[in-house]
Structure formats: C-alpha cells, structure tokens
Amino acid sequence: MRVRNQKKNADLVQYPVAVRGLSWRYGNRQVLSDITLSFEKGKLYSIIGPNGSGKTTLLRNIAKSLEPAAGSVFLNGTDIMDLSTRDVARKLSVVPQNTYIDFDFTVLDIVLMGRNPYISRLGSESREDMAAAEHAMRLTNTWDFRGKSINEVSGGERQRALVARALAQDTAVMLLDEPVSQLDLHHQIELMDMVLSLSQDRKRTILSVMHDLNLAARYSDFLILLNGGRVVVQGTPWQVLTRENIETVYHLDSCIVNNPVTGKPFLIYAKGI
User: Fold this and answer.
1) How does DSSP classify residue 264?
2) Are 63 and 94 in contact (CB under 8 A)?
3) Where does residue 242 rank: exposed (0-12), middle (13-18), buried (19+ CB within 10 A)?
4) Beta 222-227 vs 44-48: how paired, if at all?
5) pLDDT band with cut points at 50, 70 and 90 for residue 208
6) pLDDT tier for residue 8 given thresholds of 50, 70 and 90
7) Which are the contacts of 199, defined by CB distance < 8 A and separation ≥ 6?
8) How far apart are CA 171 and CA 175, in angstroms?
9) Terminal Cα-to-Cα distance of the chain (whole angstroms)
C-alpha cells in the first residue's frame, strides 16, 4: 500500500489536501465509503449533508484523528499517516465541534496552545508566540476576556477562542467543524467574513462542516454534499444546491433563487416531502 501511494505522491503535491479512496467504519457500520476529493490552495470548501452523513468523520480522518480503513489522506503529496503529529500540527489546524474544555485554563492559555507545534518540549512561549496569540484574539474579538477562565465564558465566546487558537497555529490548512453553531447572527457573519478573508487574502485552504445551507452558499467557493457516507455531488454552490439535490438528500421541497447581494443561490424551504 505504501509503495503504491508513494508513486501517486508527485501528482498530489499541487493540492494542500487530497483524499483518495477513503473509507472508514465503526464496528460493522460503514460510515464513509470510497471518498475521493481534492482541495485547492486559497479556496473555502463547505461539507454539507444531513445528520449522520459522515461530515465530521471525514474531517477527523483528514485531521489524522482517525485512521482510514482504506484509502489515504495526503498533505502536499505526503500520506498523512507518514507524518508525525507535530508535523501535521504545523500544516493543519482544527476547530472542533465540541468546545468543552476539561481544565480551568484562561482563554489566553487556550489560544497559546496553538503555538505548541513551534515550541520545544522544554521551551516556553516567545515574544513571537505571544504576538501571534494576541493578533488571533483581536481578529476574533476575544482579547478583552483573555484573563477569564475558558469555563466561565459563554459557549459562543469559547467557540471564538478555539477559532483564535487555530489562527495562532498559523497553518496553511484549517478544518472547521460547525464553527458558527453557538454564535449569534452578528458573530456568525463576522467569523465567516474573517474565514473568507483568510482563504482569499492569505491563501489558506479551509474546509468547514456547515449545517446552514444558505450560509455555506454565501461564503463557499465549493460545496461537497454527503449522504450515507458517500459524495452525492461536489461543485460550486449553484451546481450543488439544486431543487433535485435538496429533495433527494434532505427530503424537502425548496425554491432556489439568486441572492441579489452575493450572486450565490439562496434556498427557500417550502415543506417536507
């Protein structure tokens, strides 16, 4: 398997992330089946689909939190299973869906954890690390409560702190698992504007699991629609968000219109079918 993968590496160097023939199972249940995807530099991708379709599992396989049952994930042409955890952390950062923190760290402590891949085992944070953390916290509007315990702030503030941690990690690839699930409307738009800027201006490759299809359509360059652990369709928001696809996967009757502000599709849901 490794020899075969190495022969393919040269063809995959152009992609920050590539997934080839990925399958994963939990016990006897097949969760992902034969997923093949390529992610380009400087693009924002949203992974969409109903509950149980495999969105978070796919993200966790890409992050090396899970090991594929078959197939491979490549970072810049290198099989992720051949990279150390530290090497992966220098290339890829993750904002998890679960924001619960076991220990009573301050918000600043949590954000500084994003600098761990660059600090030696016995070392401590440098001025550069502190500057990176402060910059990330100001971008996410978390600097003002940096001294508070992470368990004393609201769920939305905790979620923004974890985004700041990923920003401080300063990786070329960011994985976001439902990044706006605990945010009010203002902070949803603020955060997604920032994420879009990271992809466009700083050429980050961003993969985000999203439930809000209109929000996904507004901000994404490409959508990946999963159902039953398989890719149903992938492409631009206009290619993916069709009435037929929404009916097939979500069992909803819908009307898709043009968003006059963004030029992206906007879904109006009629009823379940």
Assistant:
1) S
2) yes
3) middle
4) parallel
5) very high
6) low
7) 42, 43, 44, 205, 206, 221
8) 10
9) 45
Distances (CA, A) of 243 to 41, 235, 240, 255, 263: 30, 15, 9, 7, 17
* Phi-psi map region of 91: left, alpha, beta (phi>0 left; psi -120 to 50 alpha): alpha
> Which residue has 């696809």 as its token pair?
245
Q: What is the CA angle 250-252-256, rounded to 5?
A: 105
Instruction: Round the average pLDDT of the chain to a whole number and report it.
Output: 91
Which contiguous run of DSSP H or E holds residue 227? strand 222-227
**Domain 2-272 maps to which CATH number in 3.40.50.300, 3.30.750.24, 1.20.81.30, 3.40.190.10?**
3.40.50.300
Q: What is the pLDDT of residues 134-189, one digit of tens each?
A: 999 999 999 999 999 999 999 889 999 999 999 999 999 999 999 998 889 999 99
Amino acid letter, 198: L
Kindly report, residue by residue over 94-115, the tens digit of the pLDDT: 999 887 787 889 999 999 999 9
Residues whose CB falls within 8 Å of the CB of residue 19, separated by 6 or more in sequence, listed in order: 35, 36, 37, 38, 58, 61, 62, 71, 72, 73, 74
